[in-house]
Design brief:
Strand order of the largest sheet: 15-14-13-16-17-18-19
Number of strands: 25
Structural class: alpha/beta
Mean pLDDT: 94
CATH architecture of the largest domain: 3-Layer(aba) Sandwich
Strand content: 5-15%
Distance between the termini: 18 Å
Helix content: 40-55%
Largest sheet: 7 strands, parallel
CATH class of the largest domain: Alpha Beta
Number of helices: 34
Shape: elongated
Radius of gyration: 35 Å
Low-confidence stretches: none
CATH topology of the largest domain: Rossmann fold
CATH superfamily of the largest domain: Glycogen Phosphorylase B
Number of domains: 4
Length: 751
């Protein structure tokens, strides 16, 4: 089996890195044969531009979060520890499951902060990156100079580093004989717009000779060099600024030059030196540590000593014998920096780390797993909050739980610690063996969802769609982008409005981002799992929903039911029909009232909508009932939130429940689960029934059933009585107990 290798590939998303420097170095190493021994996953950042397709294919898989990798054995490779913010990968650097290794290019900003760290923000960011270096297990400095500086700044790296060098790109390695002295002319300077590249010294030392610059594209830098050249008496025709070159063009420029000058004051490694040598062109380099380890003193000059550079350059430009001697003495230096040679040094320590067996401290100590649980909690008026509280109570014997929530003064089961509001520090910490986020289609889940998308975690998804979450809380622009990406076509605001009015018609569910970020994504309906697999190619974990509002068995006795009816003012000879949960248009309340109107004349009926709702909608429903001839005293309908005790009384007192809703397949109804747990006969929309897979005392009707059909189903349920329900309820509740569900959740998130 291949070893797992996760690579922070954000450098491949950055235009300033992807096609130069570290991006090229990483790409070359991933193209080496040794890479085939690893299952490589590239970690990208959704906030950055997507990588070019050829770069995205350097790995076998891609991920947007580091959470899953932080919990599985393998190696983590950081190509740019001093250029990328460490927050997204902080958990990887603290976990014992992954060994970490960092490529180290240089410490130039550290050693020249006046030039490179000019703001408080840049200094803080670089300090954080340097501090994070101490978390790595091993290091791959690209030069001995960088390694020495690494050992000085991070003493723990001593004995844990291998110098790799950087490979010459194949297109810059000459296959045949190099052109002779007589076929060449002038000086080539491979430089850049950064002042530390020190191109001015080459201008001052090479007056009277054609000098060509590669890498200087800034108009201001070119103008300054042209002015300096003119002031030194140079012929304007002898100063050439070359455009952006392909490898073939750059190789030709090296081969055409009689001399290459590498004047940089500071480098982590000097590509111009080894590229020039690979083309058979003698090179003179400024005497700085990285270049000094490549060339002996005869071919170096102090970076501010124009006289020494001029003298050495003049000898090589004018004397064929000295030129040929320099070429011969430098020949062979580049052999250590072929792709094969560098790859051998690069991959050996990674393979050694992969072969080191790591065992979780929690497993070794035989302690309970440590879980961070992010969710709304009571007293938040959310069914998800109530479900989470019940789940936490069931998890307590199985794990050490710290709950995090935006809910103020949450009500928690005994033994559950409260960590306050969740933030990035929770997600970055490795003190938890797993992190569980609870998601839903409402404002209660903003923090949990944003942290999941940024850092990854396990997730329990309570809804089959997240359209209103995206629209109301993340904005229509974000919703439009997600929708277009999920269906592969343009989406308009009119489309969003249409789907919001009738969610059952949506061709998507707005689940792609959370499904990609979650490991695992736990869903409560087979239809949701099937949709996510078909639409997004992601396997989610189906766990049947566990009812959380489970009544005391004593409340289900005939005497307890009679007492509840008395508290509600329901006469013994009245038939109570109830619909539970928050009242909104998506539940077709007008249709439910119309069905009740058909039953009321023939049975002594009373109807209750138990859950509260928008006052204007409640007023409209009362008007509808009046228009249908329904007596006001037979209708319990209030906009106010129903107290928990009264809600439970209705569950005990009702003779039958009606639960309608137009919703996408996989939609879970907490109210239907309440009804099942109460052993109450129920008529429910087919979509809700299919999602919960309930016992037979729940009757499915078409989602768009007419009032007459609903009324007939209610009458049938009433006529069947309740004698058969107790055994069916007991069997269902045993299978769907919260204790059983909690164990399944824990097994899933720790798998």
């Amino acid at each position: 089996m291949k070893s797992q290798l996760l690579i922070d590939a954000r450098c491949l998303q950055r235009p300033d890195f992807a096609r130069r420097g570290i991006g090229v170095h990483l790409g070359t190493m991933l193209a080496a044969p040794q890479a085939a021994d690893f299952a490589i996953t590239l970690l990208f950042d959704p906030a950055l531009p997507p990588p070019d397709p050829d770069l995205a294919m350097l790995g076998e898989a891609a991920t947007m979060t580091a959470y899953a990798a932080s919990r599985t054995p393998g190696v983590f490779l950081q190509p740019a520890p001093l250029s990328l913010p460490p927050g997204r990968i902080a958990r990887l650097l603290q976990t014992t499951a992954r060994r970490s290794i960092a490529i180290v290019l240089d410490f130039i900003p550290h050693d020249d902060p006046a030039t490179y760290l000019t703001t408080p923000h840049s200094r803080r960011a670089y300090a954080a990156q340097c501090a994070a270096l101490r978390r790595y297990d091993h290091f791959l400095p690209i030069s001995h100079a960088t390694e020495r500086r690494l050992h000085q700044l991070v003493p723990a790296s001593i004995g844990h580093s291998e110098v790799t060098g950087v490979a010459i790109r194949p297109g810059l390695i000459r296959a045949g004989a190099a052109p002779p002295f007589t076929a060449r002319a002038g000086i080539l300077v491979v430089s850049g717009d950064d002042p530390r590249k020190n191109p001015a010294i080459a201008i001052r030392a090479a007056v009277g000779v054609t000098i060509s610059f590669v890498g200087i594209h800034d108009p201001g830098a070119r103008s300054n060099l042209a002015t300096l050249h003119a002031e030194a008496g140079g012929d304007p025709d002898n100063l050439i600024f070359l455009p952006q070159l392909t490898d073939a063009e750059l190789a030709a420029a090296y081969a055409a030059a009689r001399l290459v000058i590498a004047p940089s004051r500071a480098e982590g490694f000097s590509m111009p030196v080894i590229e020039a040598i690979a083309q058979g062109t003698p090179v003179l380099a400024a005497d700085e540590p990285a270049q000094a380890e490549l060339l002996d003193p005869a071919f170096r000059f102090p970076p501010d000593d124009t006289k020494t550079l001029r003298e050495k350059a003049a000898l090589l430009l004018a004397d064929p014998a000295r030129w040929q001697e320099a070429q011969m003495r430098q020949t062979g230096i580049a052999d250590a920096f072929t792709a094969a040679a560098v790859a051998a040094r690069f991959w050996a320590p990674i393979e050694a780390l992969a072969n080191a067996v790591v065992t979780s401290p929690a497993i070794m100590a035989h302690v309970l797993p440590r879980i961070a649980f992010l969710s709304p909690l009571p007293p938040a008026t959310s069914g998800c909050a109530d479900h989470s509280a019940s789940l936490l109570a069931a998890l307590r014997p199985l794990a050490t739980i710290t709950a995090f929530s935006d809910t103020r003064q949450p009500s928690l089961p005994p033994g559950i610690a409260f960590g306050g509001a969740a933030d990035a520090n929770v997600m970055r910490s490795a003190r938890f063996d797993a992190i569980i986020t609870v998601l839903g289609n409402s404002s209660f889940h903003v923090t949990e969802t944003k942290l999941l998308l940024d850092y990854g975690a396990a997730a329990i998804l309570h809804d089959a769609r997240l359209i209103e979450f995206y629209r109301d809380l993340l904005g229509d622009a974000r919703a439009l982008g997600v929708a277009a990406a999920e269906i592969g076509a343009d989406v308009s605001l009119a489309d969003l409005d249409s789907w919001s009015r009738d969610e059952a018609t949506m061709p998507l569910r707005f689940l792609g981002e959370v499904a990609s970020a979650a490991t695992p994504l736990i869903v409560h309906a087979r239809a949701s799992a099937d949709f996510i697999a078909a639409r997004h190619g992601i396997v989610s974990q189906f766990l049947p929903f566990a009812p959380y509002r489970v009544p005391d068995p004593a409340s289900l006795t005939p005497a307890a039911r009679a007492a509840a009816r008395a508290r509600l003012g329901i006469a013994a000879d009245q038939t109570l029909i109830a619909s539970f949960g928050h009242v909104h248009a998506g539940k077709d309340p007008e249709t439910t009232i119309a069905a009740f109107g058909r039953l009321a004349p023939s049975r002594a009926c009373r109807f209750a909508m138990v859950g509260g709702g928008n006052p204007s909608l409640i007023a409209e429903l009362r008007a509808t009932a009046t228009a249908l001839g329904i007596a006001p005293e037979t209708l319990d309908l209030d906009a106010a939130q129903v107290p928990e005790s009264r809600y439970r009384d209705y569950l005990a007192a009702a003779d039958v429940a009606v639960q309608l809703r137009r919703a996408p397949p996989g939609s879970i109804s907490g109210a239907v689960a309440d009804v099942i747990a109460a052993g109450l006969p129920c008529v429910a929309a087919a979509t809700l029934v299919a999602a919960l897979e309930p016992p037979s005392y729940v009757t499915a009707i078409a989602d768009d059933a007419a009032p007459a059909t609903i009324a007939a189903a209610i009458a049938t349920a009433l006529d069947q009585g309740r004698e058969h329900i107790a055994a069916l309820r007991a069997e269902f509740m045993a299978q769907r107990s919260m204790a059983r569900y909690a164990q399944s959740v824990l097994d899933a998130v720790l798998a």
